[in-house]
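Regression check, magnesium ion case 556:
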Amino acid sequence: MSQANLNNFIIKIIDRDIASGLHKSVRTRFPPEPNGYLHIGHAKSICLNFGIAEHYQGQCYLRFDDTNPVKEHTEFIESMKNDILWLGFHWSGEIHYSSDYFDQLYSYAIELIHKGLAYVDHLSVNQIRDYRGTLTKPGKNSPYRDRSIDTNIALFDKMRRGEFKEGSTCLRAKIDMTSPFIVMRDPVLYRIKYVDHHRTGNKWCIYPMYDFAHSICDAIEGITHSLCTLEFQDNRRLYDWVLNNISLNVYPHQYEFSRLNIEHTIISKRKLHLLVSKNVVTGWDDPRMPTIAGLRRRGYTAASILEFCRRIGITKQDNNVEISALEACIREDLNESAPRVMAVINPIKVIINNYPVGYKENIMMPNHPNKPEFGQRKVTFSREIYIDCTDFRENNCNQQYKRLILGQQVRLRYAYVIEAERVEKNEQGNITIIHCSYYKNSLNQTLDDSYKVKGVIHWVSAIDYIAAEFRFYDKLFSDHNLASTDDFNVSLNHRSLIIYHGVIETSFLPLLKSGKINYFQFEREGYFCTDSKDCSKLQPVFNRIVGLRNNWLAKS
Ligand code: ATP
Ligand code: MG
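Current build output:
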């Protein structure tokens, strides 16, 4: 379905670098911090980095940026690997970890101290912030800034040996406290954390900061083009400063592109983590989550996510993409590939009084209206059937309503024309049964329909069906722009999950048992998939991926 979208400014830069002979081959990297699950924004970065490597027959490394052991877990590493492979990408060679380079990073820190370009500071975190100044106010020097190189070497060694308390001491670059770029005001390079690391155990109690580690890891790995999101634009100065001041003599270049934001959702591991930890959702793979795992469980195919990334492209413009752009991609994919089945989400019983008691017949139906190769199936028709309660009205004054109305006719999909004659109600006044009659000669006259009924509705036999659960999802948030919100409680949509108990035709059972097909179009209802966690042969559970049209309430 999708091919990488190669019409972007980064491709032009790489073409130029190859044409000028600056690089003979291209090497990119995807460097997630394993502090959560990958989300759709990461998919954009994955498509870009792996797509570039494929296009230039170069390499793309997967590097876990594991420099903060407090928030990082192996569960996240495993899920990230799984998600990348599921999207269809393969990293070059072994998996890399920033922690692979802790020894080298440490020795480059010592090199900077030796050159008088880094110092050990004892200001507290708050003091460092106060001393840093603001965009309009220059920072001021720490009182510890000008101690001798030997003193700094000795103090850094003490830091490494665990002789200072966490938060009391750090290593900082000595750059310029008055720089117009706040990142250049003596950024912290190393801090103390008495936390075991998932790979290096208790070997270290000092851990390098992102900017210091990232540039050096890129250089050690021979990354040619280091691609990241726009919020790191200013950090490029620090990235270059580090590489220009150590003796590695490799100079990858950082380029920035805009982050993906999607309306009505938050795309940030940190914020998604809050949704999980506060039980707003059932987990990282909750089908409402914009994580790859959530989208997969919801029923999005890898092809649809790649196609979405292709369509949004890569630019430097800030954007807030409509969720419907993503939905269009899965709809187009499944329109081609999903077999059609009938399911009634809100069943109400219909009794066809002039249909013979105890009789039933098999009606052949195509599994895809335009694809004969999908074959046909037999569906039981009987005297009692279910239709959706929204497909019936006692009185109707809306000309647009083309379903069953008391005293009028409607066609049952691939079956007979019926007419509603009377209803039974319970004590609360709710309709419990719709009594109808059918036209014996009307069976499946789709082409030349002499009955001229206005509408077609779907149905399921009431003697041959499977009960099923249907989970309908809606956006998690009602606000459309959440990029800068932290207090998402205000805008939580409390109806983001609605569960229905309905019925589905039994012809679907062999497909469910085979486990081969998980995606369906339930006629007139939308695209659904079996829920990978909760669906069983005894109790089918379906997630509605997306409606048939943009407005899911609009049935045909
Ligand atoms: P988060 O805030 O979700 O943790 P991050 O940028 O801190 O995002 P990383 O794990 O560091 O996440 O991201 C790995 C790569 O994915 C980075 O190169 C980053 O720029 C890119 N990336 C992260 N979020 C997005 C996004 N929304 N759109 C595009 N690329 C993204
Ligand atoms: Mg992050």
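Comparison notes: The pocket of magnesium ion (ligand 2) is lined by residues 33 (CB under 6 Å). The chain has 13 helices and 27 strands. No diff flagged against the previous build.
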